Structure formats: C-alpha cells, structure tokens
Amino acid sequence: MIEEKNAFIFNTNKCVGCMACVAGCSIENGTSLGVNWREVNCHNKIKHPSLPVFHFSLACNHCEEAPCMKNCPALAYTRDKETGAIIHHAEACIGCKYCTWACPYDAPKFNPASSIVEKCNFCVDRISDGKQPACAQACPVGALDFGQLSLSDEDRVMPGFVDMGIKPSIQLVPLREEHASPTIENLDEEKIDPERIKEWLPKSKDKVSLEKEWTLVLFTIAVAGLVSWQAAHLFGKVEMPVIPFAVISVLAIALTSLHIGKKLRMWRFILNLKGSWLSREIFSFSAFLGLTGLHLITEIQLFGYAALVFGIFCLISVDMVYKFLTRKDGLSVHSGMVSTTAILFFAWIADIHILIELIILAKGSLYIWRKGMLKKIGASYFPVLSIIRILFLFVPYFFYDIQWELALPIVLVITFIGEIIGRAEFYYESDVPTPEKELQIIK
C-alpha cells in the first residue's frame, strides 16, 4: 500500500494564468521583488492560434528523493518529518547555486540581494495548523489545490514536467484533448513554419552559461594542470618548485571562491561528502594541495602518492559535478572534460610519446564528432573557432622532435589556450532542463 503524503494538486485544464498563486506566495513569505518561489509558465508564449494554450503553475515539489538536499555540499537542506517539507536553511547556505542545477523544477532561486538561495517551504507553518498553502488558497479557479494523497507515476504525466524518478509530491490532472490540440476555425489560414515559431519564442533563462561560468572554466583547467604537473613530478619527469605551485593553487582557490555568494562560509563546502560530488571535488582538491605541499617540503614519496590519489579523484569529481547538465549535441562525453585535459597535459609534461598521440587522436575525433552532431541539428557550432581549436590540439605535436629549450613551454601555452576553448564550449553547449524550456518544445 502506498502511504499518503502531503502534496500539491494541479489541474492544467482550469489554470488561466492569472498569477494569483504567485502573488499569494509572495505576500505570505515576503519574497524579494523578482524572486518568485512559484512561477506560472505558458506553453504558448507567442499566443499563436495554431498552438495549444495551457499554463503550468509550479514551485518546489518536496520530492521524496530531493536532489537539492542530496547534492547540497553545505547541508543547507533538511526534511520536516511531520509535513514532508524540504526546508532550506539560509544560515547554512553558501550561495554556490549547485542546488539550482540539481533541481529539474527550477524551485531553488538564487537571490542576488542576499547572495544565497531561497525556495518554497510548503507553507509548513500553515499546513501544520491544518490550513492550505498560501498559493493554493489564493487560486480563484481551483486549479491549484493541496491534500493528503497516495501518488503514483501516472500522477505526474504532463507536458513541461520533467519526471526523473525523484518522486515529487504533486498530482497533475491530465490535459483534456481539446486543450492539447486546439481547433482552428479559419481553414484558409496560412501555415507557419515551426522554425519561424521557434525564432519568435522569448529566450528562456539559462541556468548555465559561459558568461556566468568563466571562473569555473579557468578553475577546472587549473585543477587539470596542477594534477598533471604533480603526477609528472612524482615520476621524476619534471621539477615542481614550491612557490609556483603555491601561487597557482591560491589563484585556483580564488577563482572558485568567486562563484559562491557567501565566501566566509566556504568551509561548509565539504560537509556533504556522502551525497554531493561538489563536496567531494572541494575536499579531494584541498587534500591534494595539502599533501602535494608536504611532499614538496619533506620530499617523502608517500605524501606524493597520496596526493596523486586525491588528485585523480578530484578530476573524476569535477566531471561528475556536471552530471545534471544536458547538452545540445546529446552526447554522454565531451572533448572538454577535465579528466581528458589532465591526461593531455600529463602526456606532454611527462614526454610520453604514445600517450600524446592517443589522447590527441581521441580528443580530436570526439571534438569533430561533436561538431558534426551540432551542425546536424542546426545548432551553433562556430566553424572558424572550431578550426582554431583543432589546430591548437594538433600543432603542438610538430614541436615534439624539436630539441629547443622553449619547445615545451610553447607547447603547453598552445595546449592551454586550446583547452580553454574546449572547456568554454562545454559550458556554452550545456544547460539544465527546466519546466519553462520543456514547455517551449514544439512538436
């Protein structure tokens, strides 16, 4: 028997998009202007008569397997056992915005004024007193309701709703047929190309964008460089002076700190090693830096090998942090992944000819394949930049047999620039699925 639990009930057939639920939530919780815990999205934003018109009111669904709570590195989320509400604790939030990536319902909202995240709290005080949440009470047409329900997967089938198996606490009343496909009375109306309709759609908000993530581009490249440098030094291939290592390490830490809202709470980054890849990334990177420093100062090899283990795990963690992202090319791997960048750097620094050839061939093939997929689906693939990136991958190979003191530094500079291009493209081509974007998919 499925246990009953508190849940929202939403009937798209009744919703008129009046935004009363948004206003009710804002008044009840005193949210800042422009930071709405509940949002109403419309399927037909351009109001075209040949498209179905329905609205979708959505806030936090207080999921049983809540990804925000599971992945928050700072443990800023807890569950209220009595009501099932997922509660966000502002005093514990570091403003890293990782929960906004993890949630497919766009529920956590970053507030620039406070530099932390906020979200719907299920009106936990109201429902504890037997009242409805403010949003449900404010709905004038009965489209949004609340109650004790036994939910199944069939209760969550709706255009615009991403079901990731996390058991959200919401029941969705299916669209009636007449709402899914409107009747057009004017049979002489000229049909409009769906591609034109896509052009007219307002641009949806991107959770992940190169403009916002440039510090992460540099940080992730720095991590790859430091780990590959340490590995080559450990095996006696290159020197690793303490001061340059320390300077680059401090710069890397400074870069990642620019991405968080509450910098004095950075220590909370490592509190969720059990569930968050972001916690694992920061912890393993910190351990790598500390152990590498000890190795350089004491010259005890054990510290060096321990540092390498943490370094490799850090590279894996960096790539796993982005497991929530979807990419335009639809591929599961990317030529700009940090682990492949580290292998390329290591191959050059350690002067391992066969590894250089294999990793260049692998990254180049994957890059060309990805660009072909982007071109096939009509997405931007920047052919001129792509040629430059390919050249910066293969040109260093021609320096391999040159016996010149500056050959390796030049190779590393060219490779570094090429990897920045590849990593920047990773962020440009990636995003997080949201209900707003799902509703804009025209079929």
From TrEMBL:
Signal sequence extent: none
Domain 4Fe-4S ferredoxin-type: 6-36, 84-113
Provenance organism: Paralabilibaculum antarcticum
Keywords for this protein: 4Fe-4S, Iron, Iron-sulfur, Membrane, Metal-binding, Transmembrane, Transmembrane helix
Keyword DNA repair: no
Name recorded for this polypeptide: 4Fe-4S binding protein
Pfam families according to UniProt: Fer4_11
Transmembrane segments: 214-236, 242-261, 282-298, 304-325, 337-361, 381-399, 406-424
Keyword Nucleus: no
